[in-house]
Specification:
CATH architecture of the largest domain: 4-Layer Sandwich
Domain Calcineurin-like phosphoesterase: 3-198
CATH class of the largest domain: Alpha Beta
CATH topology of the largest domain: Purple Acid Phosphatase, chain A, domain 2
Distance between the termini: 60 Å
CATH superfamily of the largest domain: Metallo-dependent phosphatases
Order of helices and strands: EHEHEHEEEEEEHEEEEEEHEHEHHH
Pfam families: Metallophos (PF00149)
Largest sheet: 6 strands, mixed
GO molecular function, one term: hydrolase activity
Protein name: Metallophosphoesterase
């Protein structure tokens, strides 16, 4: 039997735009740690080869330091390493893949078509590369078919058309293909990158990104230990290799009586978590409560960082009582309520925004 360790979409040097500079750098370093864990997992399981299905790094942001790190990381292994460039790490004149002085155990696929290599006796690996950041045609076009006996496996970066709708927003169909094309080609199985949500199908597997790049990436993901039998049957087992964790935490602030109360609710919700958490505040608060996202950054927790944001926050003004006041506030409420140019949602926003301004409130609260 053949044993492979497969991963994709690590995205070394990604900017982590949602994070402040210090945290973003820490997250980028965590991605490197994840790769070292992948390599260690390969050694522990004595695999025949390590496969990366693209987007190993970010072409527009990689540095000489990243080049040196990858070269040494792969050189330290006595395993064969096969790299199939994707749309973010596409193979071109200024590619890291060209600049690195790879050791003999590293093989980079460089053609925008399937090219065969002998993985081990009786097993052929067909790999292809993106040679541009966009507009790469499907590698199965022109009726591609394998022309070798034994087990045939593919490694590439592409979009399975039936699953594009279910993947993360903004995904472009780079090198599109269908599951039927894999079977029609004579391939026994394909390991594919590009979709960050893991996917297991009869003849193809998406490992998914092994370390979270943003919030909301949940579910089993990581490196895949693939065992291939002589008849071409592929059995996949996912292993967690992430060096960091991210959490999406929703905090209901309804009933909070002060900003300190909001912090206490958030702290309770974060109890026991590690890594990085995005905290979304939602609920209805009294008008005197000063809602400030900056207050959450310093709350006590075991997290490396907290990324706060506002969800739907309502303000519970007693409009009936206010309308009865013989004050500027009362007149403002009566005038807005009498307006025929506003629908109910607009009227509420105008009322809440105006009342908070009249009260001298300057918090970051977004009115809903």
């Amino acid at each position: 039997m053949t044993k492979l360790l497969v991963f994709s979409d690590l995205h070394l040097d990604t900017p982590f735009k949602w994070a402040p500079p210090g945290l973003a750098r820490a997250r980028r370093m965590a991605l490197r740690t994840t790769l070292t864990r992948i390599m260690s997992l390969a050694e522990e399981n004595d695999v025949d080869a390590i496969l990366c299905a693209g987007d190993l790094y970010e072409h527009e942001r990689f540095s000489p330091d990243t080049t040196a790190f990858l070269r040494q990381t792969f050189a330290d292994s006595n395993r064969a390493v096969y790299l199939a460039p994707g749309n973010h790490d596409w193979y071109g004149p200024a590619s890291l893949y060209r600049m690195a002085d790879w050791t003999p155990n590293v093989h980079v696929f460089t053609e925008a078509r399937f090219v065969p290599v002998d993985l081990i006796e009786g097993v052929t690996l067909w790999g292809a590369a993106h040679r541009a950041p966009a507009n790469t045609d499907g590698f199965f076009e022109n009726d591609f078919r394998v022309d070798r006996n034994g087990v045939n496996i593919a490694l590439f970066h592409g979009s399975e058309s039936a699953q594009l709708f279910y993947q993360e927003s903004g995904k472009v169909p780079h090198a599109p293909f269908s599951a039927e094309q894999i079977e029609h080609s004579g391939l026994d199985h394909a390991f594919v990158g590009h979709f960050h949500t893991p996917r297991d199908a009869a003849r193809h597997t998406y490992p998914g990104n092994p370390d979270p790049l943003t919030f909301g990436e949940t579910g089993p993901r990581g490196a895949i230990l693939a065992t291939i039998t002589p008849d071409g049957t592929v059995m996949c087992e996912r292993h967690t290799v992430a060096a960091s964790t991210v959490h999406d935490v929703s905090v209901d602030v309804t009933g909070a009586t002060s900003s300190s109360d909001i912090c206490a609710k958030a702290e309770a919700a974060l109890q026991g978590l590690t890594g990085v958490a995005r905290v979304t505040l939602h609920g209805d608060v009294a008008p005197e409560v000063d809602v400030r996202l900056s207050d959450l950054v310093g709350i006590s927790s075991g997290l490396d960082a907290i990324v706060p944001r506002l969800g739907r926050i309502g303000v519970t003004y007693d409009l009936v009582s206010l309308a009865a006041e013989q004050t500027v506030r009362g007149q403002f409420v009566r005038d807005v309520q009498a307006s025929t140019n506003l629908d109910e949602n607009q009227r509420r926003r105008v009322l809440v925004t105006g009342l908070r301004a009249l009260d001298g409130r300057t918090s970051e609260l977004e009115v809903h």
